[in-house]
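Subject: complex prediction, re-run

Hi both,

The earlier run crashed halfway through, so I resubmitted it with identical inputs.
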Amino acid sequence: DQQVKQNSPSLSVQEGRISILNCDYTNSMFDYFLWYKKYPAEGPTFLISISSIKDKNEDGRFTVFLNKSAKHLSLHIVPSQPGDSAVYFCAASNEAGGTSYGKLTFGQGTILTVHP
Amino acid sequence: DAGVIQSPRHEVTEMGQEVTLRCKPISGHDYLFWYRQTMMRGLELLIYFNNNVPIDDSGMPEDRFSAKMPNASFSTLKIQPSEPRDSAVYFCASRDNVGREQYFGPGTRLTVT
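This time it finished cleanly. Structure:
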């Protein structure tokens, strides 16, 4: 049962344009969401996060939007740069207690390619 | 801070051999996680520890896999005996007791022939 889904395996964007990466989840208990970026031969690095009490969080060129009713979040990168080319993972967290505390559930990832 | 440290970065071994992967979490972090990444299954959680105690090992594929955390600064993931289907990249991550973000090491690429 895949609780976090990234339905687009890949996305190609021109430099300077907006990149929009999407993520859907099924577990309504998730209350915190994160985006990670991964370059080849490196571990995932934390990019930006959002709590379920918010619908938007911005950090420089990166903005994450959360639509709780649709169980959907998206990451916007504006403007996109060639150095943004990487695999992007969304992740969700539920710290209600028990063995779920502290865990992240990851999506399958989306490969973003930004062309010069 | 040096971040999460994993060793070795690459491991090539023959089927049936024992493999030990090592991880040093970020100092002061209370949680340590072991993940495996494959093309088929993506990034899957194997086991995680809180204050050196295993909390959830439901992701460990079978009894050939074991993990220990003898102290706050060291953990091992052992596969014995190894099989070709264990070939993957294994990541270690850690987090503190406040934020939700996990910080990943560079990974160990394991190849079992």
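The interface with chain B takes residues 32, 34, 36, 41-46, 49, 89, 93, 95, 99, 101-104, 106-109 of chain A (CB under 8 Å).

- K.
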